Amino acid sequence: MIPGSHNACPEPGRQSASHGLGFYVIWLTSIVVIYVLSIGPMAWLENYSLVPGGVYDFVYRPLEMISNQHPRINAFFNWYECDLWGVAHSFDHPMPTAFGL
Questions:
Q1: What CA–CA distances, in Å, run from 72 to 13, 38, 40, 78, 88?
Q2: pLDDT 10s digit of each residue in the chain, 101 long?
């Protein structure tokens, strides 16, 4: 190494510092946003029978439960699925019970 220069790489055998809290907050937020926004493409795939039946209902049941409790969230999903993806808003029908019970 040249005297006076800064080496950004850690020395061999030394581990770099762990990620800070901000990294994990951004990572978790990104996962949640991707999950919520993936409902549009998945609804489109289900509309054209490109995913097995029941997968959509199983994966997005938590969003459906939240949507049924909050009219503004339901309105967002209605806009997102119907207007943006061109498929019927799937949360407008009654939620099926587990195992058809």
A1: 53, 19, 17, 10, 17
A2: 555 556 566 566 555 557 789 999 999 999 999 999 999 999 999 999 999 878 988 999 999 999 999 999 999 999 999 999 999 876 655 544 444 43
